[in-house]
Design brief:
Shape: rod-shaped
Distance between the termini: 112 Å
Radius of gyration: 39 Å
Number of strands: 5
Number of helices: 42
Largest sheet: 5 strands, antiparallel
Strand order of the largest sheet: 1-5-2-4-3
Length: 544
Protein backbone atom coordinates (compact mmCIF):
# COMPACT_ATOMS: atom_id res chain seq x y z
CA UNK A 1 0.00 0.00 0.00
CA UNK A 2 1.30 3.44 -0.89
CA UNK A 3 2.15 5.54 2.16
CA UNK A 4 0.53 8.91 2.71
CA UNK A 5 3.81 10.79 2.18
CA UNK A 6 4.10 9.16 -1.21
CA UNK A 7 0.55 10.03 -2.09
CA UNK A 8 1.10 13.63 -1.04
CA UNK A 9 4.31 13.79 -3.03
CA UNK A 10 2.52 12.54 -6.10
CA UNK A 11 -0.34 14.99 -5.60
CA UNK A 12 1.88 18.06 -5.23
CA UNK A 13 4.11 16.92 -8.09
CA UNK A 14 1.07 17.06 -10.36
CA UNK A 15 -0.05 20.37 -8.89
CA UNK A 16 3.33 22.01 -9.35
CA UNK A 17 4.81 20.17 -12.32
CA UNK A 18 2.08 19.30 -14.80
CA UNK A 19 2.19 22.90 -15.96
CA UNK A 20 5.39 24.60 -14.88
CA UNK A 21 4.05 28.15 -15.12
CA UNK A 22 0.79 27.37 -13.36
CA UNK A 23 2.67 25.35 -10.73
CA UNK A 24 4.58 28.46 -9.67
CA UNK A 25 1.32 30.42 -9.43
CA UNK A 26 -0.25 27.67 -7.33
CA UNK A 27 2.58 27.72 -4.78
CA UNK A 28 2.49 31.51 -4.69
CA UNK A 29 -1.25 31.38 -3.97
CA UNK A 30 -0.76 28.79 -1.22
CA UNK A 31 1.95 30.89 0.48
CA UNK A 32 -0.24 33.98 0.32
CA UNK A 33 -2.71 32.34 2.71
CA UNK A 34 -1.53 31.67 6.24
CA UNK A 35 -3.80 28.69 6.72
CA UNK A 36 -2.93 27.15 3.35
CA UNK A 37 0.77 27.87 3.84
CA UNK A 38 0.88 26.30 7.30
CA UNK A 39 -0.94 23.26 6.03
CA UNK A 40 1.46 22.95 3.10
CA UNK A 41 4.70 23.30 5.10
CA UNK A 42 3.42 20.64 7.51
CA UNK A 43 3.08 18.19 4.65
CA UNK A 44 6.18 16.07 4.19
CA UNK A 45 5.28 15.04 0.64
CA UNK A 46 4.61 18.60 -0.46
CA UNK A 47 7.78 20.04 1.05
CA UNK A 48 9.78 17.21 -0.52
CA UNK A 49 8.60 18.27 -3.98
CA UNK A 50 9.94 21.80 -3.46
CA UNK A 51 12.99 21.18 -1.26
CA UNK A 52 14.03 17.76 -2.48
CA UNK A 53 15.14 18.33 -6.06
CA UNK A 54 18.76 17.53 -7.00
CA UNK A 55 20.78 20.76 -7.31
CA UNK A 56 22.53 19.55 -10.46
CA UNK A 57 19.36 18.46 -12.26
CA UNK A 58 16.55 20.99 -11.72
CA UNK A 59 13.51 20.88 -13.95
CA UNK A 60 11.98 23.99 -15.48
CA UNK A 61 10.41 25.46 -12.36
CA UNK A 62 12.30 23.75 -9.51
CA UNK A 63 14.48 26.74 -8.72
CA UNK A 64 11.59 29.19 -8.89
CA UNK A 65 9.46 27.07 -6.54
CA UNK A 66 12.38 26.75 -4.15
CA UNK A 67 13.03 30.51 -4.21
CA UNK A 68 9.37 31.25 -3.42
CA UNK A 69 9.34 28.96 -0.41
CA UNK A 70 12.80 30.08 0.81
CA UNK A 71 11.71 33.72 0.74
CA UNK A 72 8.51 33.01 2.69
CA UNK A 73 8.12 33.26 6.47
CA UNK A 74 7.29 29.55 6.50
CA UNK A 75 10.65 28.25 5.32
CA UNK A 76 11.89 27.05 8.72
CA UNK A 77 8.72 25.03 9.30
CA UNK A 78 9.07 23.57 5.81
CA UNK A 79 12.69 22.58 6.46
CA UNK A 80 11.75 20.97 9.78
CA UNK A 81 8.99 18.96 8.11
CA UNK A 82 11.26 17.92 5.22
CA UNK A 83 14.19 16.85 7.40
CA UNK A 84 11.80 15.34 9.98
CA UNK A 85 10.54 12.98 7.31
CA UNK A 86 14.12 11.74 6.95
CA UNK A 87 15.21 11.83 10.61
CA UNK A 88 12.34 10.76 12.83
CA UNK A 89 14.41 11.44 15.97
CA UNK A 90 14.55 15.12 15.09
CA UNK A 91 10.85 15.69 14.45
CA UNK A 92 10.11 16.94 17.96
CA UNK A 93 11.88 20.30 17.48
CA UNK A 94 14.64 22.08 15.65
CA UNK A 95 16.86 21.77 18.71
CA UNK A 96 16.28 18.02 18.64
CA UNK A 97 17.02 17.91 14.91
CA UNK A 98 20.42 19.59 15.24
CA UNK A 99 21.53 18.33 18.64
CA UNK A 100 23.13 15.27 17.07
CA UNK A 101 26.55 16.23 15.62
CA UNK A 102 26.73 13.10 13.48
CA UNK A 103 23.36 13.95 11.95
CA UNK A 104 24.53 17.50 11.25
CA UNK A 105 27.58 16.18 9.42
CA UNK A 106 25.41 13.81 7.43
CA UNK A 107 23.19 16.72 6.41
CA UNK A 108 26.26 18.73 5.40
CA UNK A 109 27.50 15.99 3.10
CA UNK A 110 24.16 15.60 1.33
CA UNK A 111 23.64 18.44 -1.19
CA UNK A 112 19.84 18.32 -1.00
CA UNK A 113 19.63 18.28 2.81
CA UNK A 114 22.43 20.83 3.18
CA UNK A 115 20.62 23.23 0.86
CA UNK A 116 17.42 22.76 2.86
CA UNK A 117 19.07 23.18 6.28
CA UNK A 118 20.72 26.38 5.12
CA UNK A 119 17.55 27.86 3.67
CA UNK A 120 15.94 29.00 6.91
CA UNK A 121 17.46 31.46 9.38
CA UNK A 122 16.55 29.25 12.36
CA UNK A 123 17.58 25.95 10.80
CA UNK A 124 20.83 27.42 9.42
CA UNK A 125 21.79 28.98 12.77
CA UNK A 126 21.19 25.86 14.84
CA UNK A 127 22.77 23.57 12.24
CA UNK A 128 25.92 25.70 11.83
CA UNK A 129 26.26 26.24 15.60
CA UNK A 130 26.17 22.47 16.06
CA UNK A 131 28.72 21.92 13.29
CA UNK A 132 31.03 24.32 15.16
CA UNK A 133 30.68 22.31 18.36
CA UNK A 134 28.23 24.67 20.03
CA UNK A 135 24.91 23.83 21.68
CA UNK A 136 22.27 24.64 19.12
CA UNK A 137 19.69 25.47 21.78
CA UNK A 138 21.77 28.52 22.81
CA UNK A 139 21.07 30.30 19.52
CA UNK A 140 17.68 31.25 18.15
CA UNK A 141 18.82 31.61 14.54
CA UNK A 142 21.71 32.44 12.24
CA UNK A 143 21.62 36.11 13.16
CA UNK A 144 22.13 35.17 16.80
CA UNK A 145 25.08 33.00 15.83
CA UNK A 146 26.59 35.80 13.74
CA UNK A 147 26.18 38.26 16.61
CA UNK A 148 27.96 36.05 19.14
CA UNK A 149 31.72 36.31 19.66
CA UNK A 150 31.80 32.85 21.17
CA UNK A 151 29.77 31.25 18.41
CA UNK A 152 31.59 32.97 15.56
CA UNK A 153 35.03 32.20 16.97
CA UNK A 154 34.02 28.55 16.96
CA UNK A 155 32.41 28.76 13.50
CA UNK A 156 35.42 30.51 11.98
CA UNK A 157 37.74 27.87 13.40
CA UNK A 158 35.65 24.99 12.05
CA UNK A 159 36.19 23.84 8.48
CA UNK A 160 32.86 22.02 8.45
CA UNK A 161 30.91 24.97 9.86
CA UNK A 162 32.51 27.37 7.40
CA UNK A 163 31.72 25.01 4.53
CA UNK A 164 28.06 25.33 5.52
CA UNK A 165 28.31 29.11 5.86
CA UNK A 166 29.82 29.77 2.43
CA UNK A 167 27.46 27.31 0.73
CA UNK A 168 24.26 28.94 1.96
CA UNK A 169 23.00 32.42 1.15
CA UNK A 170 21.11 32.75 4.42
CA UNK A 171 24.14 32.03 6.56
CA UNK A 172 26.50 34.00 4.37
CA UNK A 173 24.25 37.06 4.41
CA UNK A 174 24.04 36.91 8.21
CA UNK A 175 27.83 36.81 8.44
CA UNK A 176 28.57 39.65 6.03
CA UNK A 177 26.06 41.92 7.79
CA UNK A 178 27.51 41.32 11.27
CA UNK A 179 30.68 43.08 12.36
CA UNK A 180 31.26 40.46 15.02
CA UNK A 181 31.06 37.69 12.45
CA UNK A 182 33.21 39.52 9.93
CA UNK A 183 35.94 40.14 12.47
CA UNK A 184 35.98 36.48 13.43
CA UNK A 185 36.15 35.31 9.81
CA UNK A 186 38.86 37.81 8.87
CA UNK A 187 41.00 36.72 11.81
CA UNK A 188 40.83 33.02 10.93
CA UNK A 189 42.94 31.24 8.33
CA UNK A 190 40.39 28.43 8.25
CA UNK A 191 37.49 30.79 7.63
CA UNK A 192 39.33 32.78 4.97
CA UNK A 193 40.29 29.55 3.18
CA UNK A 194 36.61 28.61 3.06
CA UNK A 195 35.61 32.01 1.68
CA UNK A 196 38.37 31.98 -0.92
CA UNK A 197 37.47 28.44 -1.94
CA UNK A 198 33.91 29.38 -2.78
CA UNK A 199 33.51 31.77 -5.73
CA UNK A 200 30.07 32.93 -4.65
CA UNK A 201 31.16 33.68 -1.09
CA UNK A 202 34.30 35.42 -2.30
CA UNK A 203 32.30 37.65 -4.60
CA UNK A 204 29.87 38.50 -1.81
CA UNK A 205 32.78 39.53 0.43
CA UNK A 206 34.57 41.47 -2.30
CA UNK A 207 31.48 43.51 -3.10
CA UNK A 208 30.51 44.22 0.51
CA UNK A 209 32.04 47.36 2.00
CA UNK A 210 31.62 46.08 5.55
CA UNK A 211 33.15 42.71 4.71
CA UNK A 212 36.08 44.21 2.85
CA UNK A 213 36.73 46.71 5.63
CA UNK A 214 37.11 43.77 8.01
CA UNK A 215 39.35 41.91 5.57
CA UNK A 216 41.51 44.95 4.86
CA UNK A 217 42.43 45.56 8.50
CA UNK A 218 43.35 41.92 9.10
CA UNK A 219 46.85 40.71 8.32
CA UNK A 220 45.55 37.13 8.32
CA UNK A 221 42.81 37.89 5.82
CA UNK A 222 45.00 39.96 3.52
CA UNK A 223 47.72 37.32 3.51
CA UNK A 224 45.16 34.69 2.53
CA UNK A 225 43.67 36.84 -0.24
CA UNK A 226 47.04 37.84 -1.70
CA UNK A 227 48.32 34.26 -1.62
CA UNK A 228 45.51 33.19 -3.94
CA UNK A 229 45.75 34.67 -7.43
CA UNK A 230 42.07 34.23 -8.28
CA UNK A 231 40.98 35.72 -4.96
CA UNK A 232 43.20 38.74 -5.28
CA UNK A 233 42.07 39.32 -8.86
CA UNK A 234 38.51 39.37 -7.54
CA UNK A 235 39.55 42.09 -5.10
CA UNK A 236 41.43 44.05 -7.75
CA UNK A 237 38.44 44.14 -10.08
CA UNK A 238 36.07 45.30 -7.33
CA UNK A 239 36.03 49.05 -6.67
CA UNK A 240 34.40 48.37 -3.31
CA UNK A 241 37.22 46.03 -2.37
CA UNK A 242 39.98 48.32 -3.59
CA UNK A 243 38.48 51.27 -1.71
CA UNK A 244 38.71 49.18 1.45
CA UNK A 245 42.29 48.16 0.67
CA UNK A 246 43.36 51.74 0.03
CA UNK A 247 41.75 52.83 3.30
CA UNK A 248 43.75 50.41 5.45
CA UNK A 249 47.48 50.70 6.06
CA UNK A 250 47.54 46.99 6.87
CA UNK A 251 46.15 46.15 3.44
CA UNK A 252 48.31 48.66 1.59
CA UNK A 253 51.43 47.28 3.26
CA UNK A 254 50.36 43.73 2.46
CA UNK A 255 49.93 44.55 -1.23
CA UNK A 256 53.32 46.23 -1.53
CA UNK A 257 54.98 43.32 0.25
CA UNK A 258 53.93 41.04 -2.61
CA UNK A 259 55.46 41.56 -6.05
CA UNK A 260 52.70 39.43 -7.55
CA UNK A 261 50.03 41.58 -5.90
CA UNK A 262 51.66 44.78 -7.10
CA UNK A 263 51.72 43.47 -10.67
CA UNK A 264 48.05 42.49 -10.46
CA UNK A 265 47.13 45.99 -9.30
CA UNK A 266 49.28 47.59 -12.00
CA UNK A 267 47.41 45.60 -14.63
CA UNK A 268 44.16 47.32 -13.63
CA UNK A 269 44.20 51.08 -14.17
CA UNK A 270 41.34 51.78 -11.77
CA UNK A 271 42.80 49.62 -9.02
CA UNK A 272 46.21 51.22 -9.42
CA UNK A 273 44.78 54.73 -9.19
CA UNK A 274 42.89 53.73 -6.04
CA UNK A 275 45.94 52.17 -4.37
CA UNK A 276 48.38 54.95 -5.22
CA UNK A 277 45.83 57.52 -4.14
CA UNK A 278 45.67 56.23 -0.56
CA UNK A 279 45.52 59.03 2.00
CA UNK A 280 48.53 60.51 3.76
CA UNK A 281 47.53 58.80 7.01
CA UNK A 282 47.27 55.38 5.35
CA UNK A 283 50.51 55.73 3.39
CA UNK A 284 52.44 57.06 6.38
CA UNK A 285 51.49 54.12 8.56
CA UNK A 286 51.93 51.62 5.71
CA UNK A 287 55.42 52.96 5.02
CA UNK A 288 56.29 52.75 8.70
CA UNK A 289 55.07 49.16 8.88
CA UNK A 290 56.99 48.13 5.77
CA UNK A 291 60.14 49.75 7.13
CA UNK A 292 59.90 47.94 10.44
CA UNK A 293 58.78 50.99 12.40
CA UNK A 294 55.76 51.35 14.66
CA UNK A 295 52.84 52.75 12.63
CA UNK A 296 51.38 54.25 15.81
CA UNK A 297 54.37 56.60 16.01
CA UNK A 298 53.54 58.32 12.70
CA UNK A 299 50.26 60.10 12.02
CA UNK A 300 50.78 60.44 8.28
CA UNK A 301 53.27 60.85 5.45
CA UNK A 302 54.14 64.36 6.58
CA UNK A 303 55.34 62.90 9.87
CA UNK A 304 57.36 60.27 7.99
CA UNK A 305 58.87 62.81 5.60
CA UNK A 306 59.93 65.14 8.40
CA UNK A 307 61.66 62.38 10.37
CA UNK A 308 65.25 61.53 9.53
CA UNK A 309 64.83 58.26 11.43
CA UNK A 310 61.80 57.25 9.41
CA UNK A 311 63.33 58.28 6.10
CA UNK A 312 66.50 56.35 6.86
CA UNK A 313 64.47 53.24 7.65
CA UNK A 314 62.40 53.58 4.49
CA UNK A 315 65.43 54.19 2.29
CA UNK A 316 67.04 51.12 3.83
CA UNK A 317 64.09 48.96 2.84
CA UNK A 318 63.40 48.60 -0.89
CA UNK A 319 59.83 47.40 -0.34
CA UNK A 320 58.97 50.41 1.80
CA UNK A 321 60.71 52.72 -0.63
CA UNK A 322 58.86 51.25 -3.61
CA UNK A 323 55.56 51.82 -1.81
CA UNK A 324 56.38 55.42 -0.95
CA UNK A 325 57.60 56.45 -4.38
CA UNK A 326 54.64 54.72 -6.04
CA UNK A 327 52.18 56.86 -4.09
CA UNK A 328 51.22 60.32 -5.33
CA UNK A 329 50.26 61.27 -1.78
CA UNK A 330 53.59 60.13 -0.34
CA UNK A 331 55.53 61.85 -3.10
CA UNK A 332 53.71 65.11 -2.39
CA UNK A 333 54.74 64.88 1.26
CA UNK A 334 58.36 64.25 0.31
CA UNK A 335 58.36 67.23 -2.04
CA UNK A 336 57.40 69.46 0.90
CA UNK A 337 60.14 68.16 3.20
CA UNK A 338 63.79 69.09 2.88
CA UNK A 339 64.62 66.38 5.40
CA UNK A 340 63.11 63.77 3.10
CA UNK A 341 64.68 65.18 -0.06
CA UNK A 342 68.11 65.34 1.56
CA UNK A 343 67.79 61.76 2.73
CA UNK A 344 66.81 60.60 -0.75
CA UNK A 345 69.53 62.61 -2.47
CA UNK A 346 72.15 60.92 -0.29
CA UNK A 347 71.09 57.47 -1.48
CA UNK A 348 71.68 56.02 -4.92
CA UNK A 349 68.82 53.54 -4.63
CA UNK A 350 66.40 56.04 -3.09
CA UNK A 351 67.06 58.64 -5.77
CA UNK A 352 66.62 56.04 -8.49
CA UNK A 353 63.28 54.84 -7.19
CA UNK A 354 62.08 58.33 -6.34
CA UNK A 355 62.94 59.60 -9.81
CA UNK A 356 61.34 56.76 -11.76
CA UNK A 357 58.29 56.92 -9.49
CA UNK A 358 57.92 60.65 -10.15
CA UNK A 359 58.37 59.96 -13.86
CA UNK A 360 55.47 57.51 -13.88
CA UNK A 361 57.52 54.32 -14.13
CA UNK A 362 57.54 51.34 -11.77
CA UNK A 363 60.10 51.82 -8.97
CA UNK A 364 60.39 48.09 -8.35
CA UNK A 365 61.77 47.67 -11.88
CA UNK A 366 64.92 49.67 -11.05
CA UNK A 367 67.28 48.55 -8.30
CA UNK A 368 69.57 51.59 -8.37
CA UNK A 369 70.78 54.54 -10.42
CA UNK A 370 73.00 52.35 -12.55
CA UNK A 371 69.87 50.52 -13.72
CA UNK A 372 68.13 53.82 -14.36
CA UNK A 373 71.09 55.33 -16.17
CA UNK A 374 71.41 52.31 -18.45
CA UNK A 375 67.77 52.54 -19.51
CA UNK A 376 66.90 54.85 -22.36
CA UNK A 377 63.24 54.56 -21.38
CA UNK A 378 63.92 55.62 -17.80
CA UNK A 379 66.18 58.51 -18.75
CA UNK A 380 63.70 59.82 -21.31
CA UNK A 381 60.90 59.72 -18.73
CA UNK A 382 63.01 61.39 -16.05
CA UNK A 383 64.14 64.19 -18.33
CA UNK A 384 60.50 64.84 -19.24
CA UNK A 385 59.50 65.20 -15.57
CA UNK A 386 60.81 68.20 -13.67
CA UNK A 387 60.45 66.57 -10.24
CA UNK A 388 62.32 63.47 -11.32
CA UNK A 389 65.01 65.42 -13.13
CA UNK A 390 65.55 67.74 -10.20
CA UNK A 391 65.92 64.76 -7.86
CA UNK A 392 68.61 63.24 -10.08
CA UNK A 393 70.65 66.39 -10.67
CA UNK A 394 70.51 67.23 -6.96
CA UNK A 395 72.03 63.90 -5.93
CA UNK A 396 75.76 63.39 -6.19
CA UNK A 397 75.20 59.63 -5.99
CA UNK A 398 72.73 59.73 -8.85
CA UNK A 399 74.86 62.04 -10.98
CA UNK A 400 77.87 59.78 -10.58
CA UNK A 401 75.86 57.00 -12.18
CA UNK A 402 74.49 59.28 -14.91
CA UNK A 403 77.88 60.74 -15.76
CA UNK A 404 79.39 57.27 -16.02
CA UNK A 405 76.71 55.99 -18.42
CA UNK A 406 76.88 56.50 -22.18
CA UNK A 407 73.13 55.84 -22.43
CA UNK A 408 72.25 58.37 -19.77
CA UNK A 409 74.60 61.03 -21.04
CA UNK A 410 73.40 60.62 -24.62
CA UNK A 411 69.89 61.36 -23.37
CA UNK A 412 71.07 64.29 -21.27
CA UNK A 413 73.30 65.82 -23.96
CA UNK A 414 70.51 65.78 -26.53
CA UNK A 415 68.07 67.59 -24.24
CA UNK A 416 68.02 71.34 -23.68
CA UNK A 417 65.96 70.74 -20.54
CA UNK A 418 68.41 68.26 -19.06
CA UNK A 419 71.43 70.41 -19.92
CA UNK A 420 69.81 73.43 -18.29
CA UNK A 421 69.09 71.40 -15.15
CA UNK A 422 72.67 70.15 -14.95
CA UNK A 423 74.19 73.55 -15.58
CA UNK A 424 71.92 74.99 -12.93
CA UNK A 425 73.13 72.56 -10.28
CA UNK A 426 76.76 72.66 -9.16
CA UNK A 427 76.69 69.03 -7.98
CA UNK A 428 75.47 67.79 -11.33
CA UNK A 429 77.73 70.07 -13.34
CA UNK A 430 80.82 68.99 -11.45
CA UNK A 431 79.91 65.32 -11.97
CA UNK A 432 79.62 65.87 -15.71
CA UNK A 433 82.79 67.90 -16.26
CA UNK A 434 84.73 65.43 -14.11
CA UNK A 435 83.70 62.45 -16.25
CA UNK A 436 85.37 61.59 -19.54
CA UNK A 437 82.29 59.54 -20.50
CA UNK A 438 80.01 62.47 -19.83
CA UNK A 439 82.16 65.00 -21.66
CA UNK A 440 82.50 62.69 -24.65
CA UNK A 441 78.71 62.72 -24.89
CA UNK A 442 78.70 66.50 -24.54
CA UNK A 443 81.29 66.81 -27.29
CA UNK A 444 79.12 64.77 -29.65
CA UNK A 445 76.01 66.91 -29.15
CA UNK A 446 75.47 70.33 -30.69
CA UNK A 447 72.61 70.83 -28.22
CA UNK A 448 74.89 70.28 -25.26
CA UNK A 449 77.72 72.40 -26.69
CA UNK A 450 75.33 75.27 -27.35
CA UNK A 451 74.04 75.05 -23.77
CA UNK A 452 77.57 75.18 -22.38
CA UNK A 453 78.58 78.02 -24.66
CA UNK A 454 75.61 80.02 -23.42
CA UNK A 455 76.50 79.56 -19.75
CA UNK A 456 79.36 81.26 -17.98
CA UNK A 457 78.70 78.95 -15.05
CA UNK A 458 79.28 75.89 -17.19
CA UNK A 459 82.33 77.41 -18.84
CA UNK A 460 83.79 78.33 -15.47
CA UNK A 461 83.39 74.73 -14.32
CA UNK A 462 85.20 73.52 -17.42
CA UNK A 463 87.83 76.22 -17.09
CA UNK A 464 88.66 74.99 -13.61
CA UNK A 465 89.88 71.78 -15.25
CA UNK A 466 91.67 73.39 -18.18
CA UNK A 467 95.01 72.45 -19.67
CA UNK A 468 97.42 74.68 -21.58
CA UNK A 469 99.23 73.99 -24.83
CA UNK A 470 102.23 76.34 -24.95
CA UNK A 471 105.32 76.85 -27.07
CA UNK A 472 106.20 77.73 -30.63
CA UNK A 473 104.26 75.69 -33.20
CA UNK A 474 102.98 73.34 -30.49
CA UNK A 475 100.05 71.23 -31.69
CA UNK A 476 97.56 68.66 -30.46
CA UNK A 477 95.00 66.34 -32.06
CA UNK A 478 91.95 65.07 -30.24
CA UNK A 479 88.70 66.63 -29.00
CA UNK A 480 88.96 69.99 -27.26
CA UNK A 481 86.93 72.92 -26.10
CA UNK A 482 89.09 75.98 -26.74
CA UNK A 483 88.76 78.29 -23.77
CA UNK A 484 91.29 81.08 -24.40
CA UNK A 485 94.01 81.99 -26.90
CA UNK A 486 97.07 84.12 -26.07
CA UNK A 487 96.88 87.63 -27.51
CA UNK A 488 99.98 87.32 -29.71
CA UNK A 489 99.03 83.92 -31.10
CA UNK A 490 98.78 84.85 -34.80
CA UNK A 491 96.29 83.08 -37.06
CA UNK A 492 97.43 81.65 -40.39
CA UNK A 493 96.51 78.18 -41.55
CA UNK A 494 99.63 77.90 -43.72
CA UNK A 495 102.37 78.94 -41.30
CA UNK A 496 101.10 80.17 -37.93
CA UNK A 497 98.42 79.15 -35.44
CA UNK A 498 94.94 77.83 -36.17
CA UNK A 499 92.36 75.26 -35.08
CA UNK A 500 90.38 72.74 -37.07
CA UNK A 501 86.82 72.31 -35.81
CA UNK A 502 84.65 69.18 -35.87
CA UNK A 503 83.00 70.25 -39.14
CA UNK A 504 86.41 70.60 -40.84
CA UNK A 505 86.39 74.40 -40.82
CA UNK A 506 89.38 76.50 -39.72
CA UNK A 507 87.78 79.78 -38.71
CA UNK A 508 89.82 82.88 -37.82
CA UNK A 509 90.41 83.55 -34.17
CA UNK A 510 91.76 87.08 -34.41
CA UNK A 511 88.66 88.60 -32.81
CA UNK A 512 87.95 85.70 -30.42
CA UNK A 513 91.05 85.28 -28.26
CA UNK A 514 89.48 86.44 -25.01
CA UNK A 515 88.38 83.98 -22.37
CA UNK A 516 85.58 81.78 -23.78
CA UNK A 517 85.16 84.01 -26.85
CA UNK A 518 86.23 81.44 -29.44
CA UNK A 519 83.96 78.67 -28.12
CA UNK A 520 81.03 81.03 -27.64
CA UNK A 521 81.38 82.16 -31.23
CA UNK A 522 81.69 78.77 -32.92
CA UNK A 523 80.18 76.32 -30.34
CA UNK A 524 82.11 73.39 -31.76
CA UNK A 525 84.74 70.95 -30.66
CA UNK A 526 88.26 71.46 -32.02
CA UNK A 527 89.92 68.33 -33.39
CA UNK A 528 93.30 69.96 -33.99
CA UNK A 529 95.10 72.99 -32.46
CA UNK A 530 98.40 74.67 -33.34
CA UNK A 531 100.23 77.68 -31.92
CA UNK A 532 102.06 80.18 -34.07
CA UNK A 533 105.85 80.27 -34.08
CA UNK A 534 106.53 82.36 -30.93
CA UNK A 535 107.57 80.45 -27.84
CA UNK A 536 105.28 82.44 -25.53
CA UNK A 537 102.12 81.52 -27.43
CA UNK A 538 99.53 79.31 -25.77
CA UNK A 539 96.00 77.95 -25.97
CA UNK A 540 93.94 77.02 -22.87
CA UNK A 541 91.60 74.10 -23.55
CA UNK A 542 89.49 71.40 -22.01
CA UNK A 543 90.10 67.93 -23.34
CA UNK A 544 86.87 66.01 -23.95
Amino acid sequence: MIKKIQQDFSYYSHEFKDNYRKGVHRLRTILASRAQAQAFVSNAGGTAVVLGYEPDTPDKNAQELYALLAASPYIDDAVQTFLGSIYEAGTESQDAMYSDSARCLEILHDPVMARAAGAGAVSAGKWIAALAGQSCDLYRDMNAVAASDIAMTAVAASETAMTAVVSNATALNAVVTSQVALNAVAASETAMAAVIGNATALNVVATSQAAMNAVAVSETAMAAIIANTAAFNTVVTSQVAMNAVASSYVAVAAVYESAVAVEAVKANETALATLTGATSAVMGKAAAKLAGLNPADYADMDAIASSSTAMAAIIGNSTALNAVVSSSTAMAAIEKSQVAKDAIAASDMATAKYAVGAAGLTPADYANMAAVASSQTAMTAIIANSTALNAVVSSSAAMSAVAASQTAMAAVASSQTAMAAIIGNSTALNAVVSSSTAMAAIAASSTALSAIAASTTALDAIYAKKKRMSGASASLSGKFIILQISNDNAFDTSQYGYATLSDGSKPKWDSYKDKYAYFKQYKKIATYMKNDTDRDDWIDYFQC
